[in-house]
Amino acid sequence: GNNSEIGRPLITCLYMEPALLVVHVGAGYHSRLLEPQYRDAMTRALKRGMNQPHARGAVEASICELEDDSNTNAGTGSNLNLDGEVECDASIMQSGDGKNTQHDARGYFGGVGCLCNVPNPIVVASHLMQERAQGLLPLGRVRPMLLTGNGALKWAQSRGIKVTEQGELVSERARASWTKHINLLHQHEETEGASDQGPAQEDDHIKKKTKTTKRPLNDDDQSEDQSIFQDTVGAICVARNGTIVSGVSSGGISLKHPGRIGEASIYGCGCWAEAWPSSSSTSSGAYGGGVGCSVSGTGEQIMEDMLARTCAEAIKARDCPVDAIRSAFESKFLRPSYDGMARQAGVIALSLLPLSQDDDDAGDPSDSGLPDLAIDVIWPQDKRPTYKENARLNRPCRYQN
C-alpha cells in the first residue's frame, strides 16, 4: 500500500565446506554510485568469514569487515546522532546444533546498544554471548545479555577489545551528511515555527553544537536523504553440524536522539537463530530443521513486531519459507502505521529443511548427514520471489543477487 514499503536488500551468499555464509548491507535506499563498493565489501566479508573455523567466528569476522568499511552504516562511517557522534547497536545469536533437546534449540544471545568508541560492536556482542554460555557469576549473579552506553564500553575495555577515539569512527561522508541534515532540520524548525524534537531547551542544546548555513530545501535533498536511513549490516552462517549463527550491526538512523536503541540490539528483533531437534528418536545425527534471520529497516517498527523472531516462527510453521516470510510481513509488519510513516524493513533468512530417514538412505555418501538449505530473497518489486532450494552444504557454489 501507499504507507508500506520494503527496501531492496543487497546481499551476497557463499556456500562451501564446512559452512554456508550469507551477508547483507541493509534494506534501504543505497546509492547506485556506491553499489560496486558495497559488493566489494560483501565479497571481502565473505572471504574473511569463510576463513574462520566455526560459524560464530564466520559471522563475527564478516560483520567486522562490513563495520570497517566506511560506506556502510555500522562501526566506522555510521550515521551520526543529533550531537554528531557515532552510537552503535549490534547483536549475535547462536542456535543449538539441532540434535539435542528443545531447551538447547535457541542457544545464546548477546547484544550492545548506544556503544561509542568501539570500531567493531559485533565483537563486544559476541563476547557477551560466549560468556553467557559459561553459566552464573560468583554469588549466583546472572551474566548480562545486553549492555548499553558507558557500561558496555567499560565491559569491552575490561576484555581487551579495541577501543578508539570518537572522531576516528566518523567518516567524511557521514560528517557531510550530518551537517547537511542538521541544516535542513534547523531550516524546517524556523520555517514551521515549531520543533519536532521536543522542548525548547533541547533545540538550544543542538544549535549550540552546530553551525548552520541557510540554503533552500529542494527536491534533490529528498532523493539524497534516502541513502542514509536504513542500511544495517548482517550475516547468517550455517555449520555442517546444523548450528546456525545470525548477527546484525548498525549505526542507527541519522539524527537519532542520543541514547536511542534500535532493533540491532534487541532480542528477537534484529537477528534470530534456532535449530530444532529431529522428531525421530532413532535417527542418529538427524536434523529437525532450523532457521536464521537477519533484519534491517526502521528499528522502532521492527521492534514493535519482533520481526526477526516473527519471521523465524512463520518459517517453522510453513513448508515454503518464501510464503512464510511474505505471510509474516503481510499479517504482522505491513499494517497501517499510526504515525503515517511508510513501514520499511528487509530480511534475509536461511532455512534448514529437516533431514529425513529417506535422505540418510539415499545412497549418496557425499550427502550423508547434511541438511538441505533453502535460500530465500524477496522484495515487492519482483513479480516472483527469488527462491533457491535444496542446496547441499557440501557442494561449493556461489549465489549472488
Description:
With 401 residues, the chain is an alpha+beta fold. The protein is 31% helix and 25% strand. The protein has eleven helices and 14 strands. An eight-stranded mixed β-sheet has the order 6-5-4-8-7-3-2-14. A hairpin with a 2-residue loop joins strand 2 and strand 3 (19-28). Helix 2 runs antiparallel to helix 3 and helix 9 (307-317) crosses helix 10. The longest helix has 21 residues, at 172-192. The protein is globular and about 65 Å long. The model is unreliable at 1-9, 211-229 and 359-401 (pLDDT under 50).
Averaged pLDDT? 77
Q: Which bin fits the share of residues in helices?
A: 25-40%
Distance between the termini: 25 Å
- Tell me the fraction of residues in β-strands, as a range: 15-25%
Q: Roughly how many Å is the radius of gyration?
A: 21 Å
Number of discrete helical segments: 11
The run of helices and strands is: EEEHHEEHEHHHHEEEEHHHEHEEE
Biggest sheet descriptor: 8 strands, mixed
Which strand order spans the largest sheet, edge to edge or round the barrel? 6-5-4-8-7-3-2-14
Number of DSSP strand runs: 14
Structural class: alpha+beta
Unreliable spans:
1-9, 211-229, 359-401
Overall geometry: globular
Concise synopsis of the structure shown:
The protein is α+β, with helices and mostly antiparallel strands. It has 11 helices and 14 strands. The protein has helices at 35-50, 55-68, 121-132, 149-158, 172-192, 200-208, 219-225, 299-305, 307-317, 321-333, 357-360, and strands at 4-5, 8-16, 19-28, 88-94, 108-115, 146-148, 233-239, 244-250, 271-277, 287-297, 343-353, 372-377, 386-392, 397-400.
